Records
---
Amino acid sequence: MIMISNLFNRKIFTLLKVQYSNMLEYRVEIALWAISGIIPFFMLNIWTNNNLNESINISDVLLSRYFLCAFFVRQFSVVWVVFSFEEDSLMGRVSPYLIQPLNPFFRYFAQHLAEQITRFPFALIIAFFFFIFNPESIWIPNLGTLLLSIVSTFLSFLIQFLIQSIVACLCFWTEKASSIERLLFIPTLFLSGLLAPVVSFPAYVKSWIYLTPFPYLIDFPANLLSGNETNISGGLGMQILWICLLLPLFKKIWSEGTKKYTAMGS
Amino acid sequence: MNLRKYLKVYKKFLHTSLASELEYKTNILVDLITAILSLVGSIFLLSIFFQNNGYIGGWKFEQALIIQAIYTILNGITNTWFNPNLTEIVKHIREGTLDFVLLKPIDSQFFISLKKINPSGFLEIMIGFLLLLFCIRINQINLNLSFLTLSLITISCSICILYSLWFFISTSTIWFVKTWNAIEVLRSFLYIGRFPLNSFSFSLRIFFSVFIPIAFITTIPSEVFLGLSVLWKILLEFIVATVFLITSRKFWLFALKFYSSASS
């Protein structure tokens, strides 16, 4: 048993190492990706410039911390597995992956983790500039909060990774699964709290939104990290619940899909 | 330059790319739903901004809706023409197929900018127009000839600026090879075109009018619709559009000097 888990760890470690050196080759690319995530700062600008935060009882400082954290959470939970998988499956590269004694999604998973490590310094630089322009919002979260928010950001990443992997498996049936992903991205964008904190949503949305996975993707981890009010155990519980729901679904669709898969030329 | 020849070639382009895109019919449906949802989402976001305030940056909700309509139309145009073609440049350069384009007895910028078309963008343009008509009704705008010409001119200028921005970034692929992400950066910046320029702080307003003229793209046409526009702004937009178009052309010819094909 220990041997098996050792072997498994070694695989993951090797994959991570390979993908990390691969990602380092594309530093400029990743810097640009990091910059493309600055929409929350534009939104913050609208909120504070029009004094919109007064109506939802969040101070300027807390709101700017919220949007900074939303930026960070988004940076470390971006998922693009469906686009990679679609390309690989159209090009027929999935076939060799299927022969390997490892689910190909581990490869993508390692790719994402490696990308996040490469992205980290760029995100820090952007945060540094943010603090230069907004020196009053500097704060240091305590260690416990920091750890909890790292965990919840990772869980948010896992939820999105699972949802996209499920969509990616649709590649076995249709050629363009990425357009379904683009469709799913719209509610994620507007309901996750990236553009406006969920607290500010009208009551008719707030009544059902906490049952969907969306607020746990960005709003919950960002509130946690920025020190805004949030229900910690409830949020983490819902994140884990969604992962428990999505994981078996992914396994099911994966096994169905691979049965359906016909390699190029067959 | 022979106009008739180019028209004939463009007809062929339309025919071939429509035929290939219509192969993916469900895709078009999914794209339509995506366009509708993203408009609903932005209006939802706008309604959050307005829920306790009457004005944002001096704009009422009904007036801000015009910006959404124009943004949707322009986004539809981007998705129909700019996005499918200009991302293709990246591929041409990486795989060295730009050689084949350059060898053709036709202008390379024309070929590269108009070769493909994505029909699902049409539907987005239509949704934008419907919203615009609705806005014209609720804002009680009088339609007359001078107003129509002015709005047509400003919107065409916006299209030119938008095209040039996309084309600049795609052309820079000749040096950087992978500009995929630069396009993503542009997309995220363009997103602020959904909101009135006056709702941003002074420094951002300067940034978005001087460095990346997103301000001109949606705000000025919307002001024309509301009858708020001043003549110098329209003139300025016209000048910016012309400058951008000319430089994009010059930049392409300049960049081509640095293009070395795949095997050389």
---
Amino acid sequence: MSFLLKVENLRIELRMRAGVAPVIDDLSFELAHGESISFVGESGCGKSMTALAIMGLLPEGIGRVASGKIWFDGEDLVAASPARLRHIRGNKIGMIFQEPMTSLNPVYSVGEQIAEVLREHQGLSRKAAWAEAIELLDAVRIPNPETRATAYPFEMSGGQRQRVMIAIALACKPKILIADEPTTALDVTVQAQIFDLLRDLRRQTGTSLIMITHDMGAVAEMAERMIVMYAGRKAEEGPVDKVIAHARHPYTQGLISCVPHLVAHLTEERQDLNEVPGIVPGLAEFGQGRCLFASRCARATERCLTTRPEEIAFSDVHRSACWHAEGM
Amino acid sequence: MTSKNETGPLNAPTLSKEKASSPLSEAWTKFRANHSAMVGLFVLVLIMLGAIVGPLLYPTDPFELVWRPFSPPGADGFLLGTDYIGRDLVAQMLVGARVSLVVGVAAAIVTILIGVAVGALAGFYRGWVEEILMRITEFFQVLPTLLFSMVIVALFGASLLMITLAIGIVSWPAVARITRAEFLRIRELEYVTASRAAGATPAKLMLKVILPNALPPIIVQAALMTGSAILFEAGLSFLGLTDPNVMSWGQIIGSNREFILQSAYTVTIPGIAIFVAVLAIALVGDGLNDALNPKLRQR
């Protein structure tokens, strides 16, 4: 089976005052044509860094790909020239960001911003790009697209702006859409609308989706496969239904148990919410030769503190990097 | 635009400029509410009108000797009197306004062009580009401006072009620093990352994405720069570093300065004109600052 995107042993290093820390440590994964995967984990686990590395947008002078390969359509993006990456960005890989409020340029109307991408990558004329921009606004279900195209970002709600971002990202019909926490900043009802929209657009265009989130609900909603990240490493990977039904990593179990349940009968005393105790280790601890989750893990044993767990496969598709995975 | 149904929504890009909500019209609304800025604009427009149509309505040659020297204002039919060799001061003032304003605006443009180019490159590329450009900026900043511009004019000749360039060359560091600061701030914003993610080239990022957002303080600086360039030109003229064949307000002061005690009006009248013009420009610049500064803008 050929993959659209194949990341091999990716290691991304961040330069800090104290030295160099691997924010992404030996990460490998694949994305098939039309597939939808999701990266899950707390803040600071390296999810966004993975996305930025694929886009070639790691913070200049601070982050760099130390080793590994990112194969996209038979081409290694790590070795690609800046001009080549610019051509791929926005054209073959689109990206939407967490903060729709600040992701649009305040001085241009939204129609101009969509048209700009089309002119850049597809060489459309001003007029054709504008007409196409209106169609895209219609496709992302913005009412009255002709008039709304002339609106400036500050005249739009967060949900509408995220729709515009989606329109920009999908303008050139990319093969992959990367969505970095696309709904975190939005209301629940708007979240559901955006998910519906993304699902429909994906069905129509066959675009592969990489969604980055910390919301298990969003994963269940959108993704076919999920990769749980912890402290720059892959903790668990597998089909969403399998992982949620039977998580093979204590961190995944913790994340799943953290999702609050809606209870029909409210009692005076509410149940305590579940949480994963502790916090993600600081960057300085990344890359050590042990299980980085051990300090927060109830199952931690001597081996967890001395040796980095290897990935264990439970079927072709389900893997976990935990010394105790088999017992779970 | 040819068929009837096209005049509707498809024309939207042009429509947006008339919409009450565009950033520009929003700024204009704020500007109009600012009384002192509107007074400044009114005075500035008057001066510009005088400079443009004045010499046509009052066709006396400012270099022609029309009457005896030092005829005081109002006497002998000369509204502002005559200068030390008997030239009509009204004609001189009107023609001089042209030169003073043109030098002011042109020097401001030179300043902005150099300053924005240096500041944008430094703020966008950072690293060694920034280091080199900012060291150069600092070098120009520590040079004594008046002395340095005098050297330039003395070396390359006291033509209007050279004076304009000299003012620009000594003034750009402030603009470069403002532009760099804005670029440093804006380049980290999410919409710049989003534009990168959409495949924008560095040139496009600088000129079309970051620069329009960095403009407000630069526009304000340009307005203030125009005022100080007029002052600068007057200062150089006062010191005699000017083209004697070109009439400007500073030139009137400079040529009459030896007789400042006998006939103060020959120096006072252009002095007041410079004062009023620079004040008007400063008021407009201040109003622009209030109207364009995002920190003061309420949503």
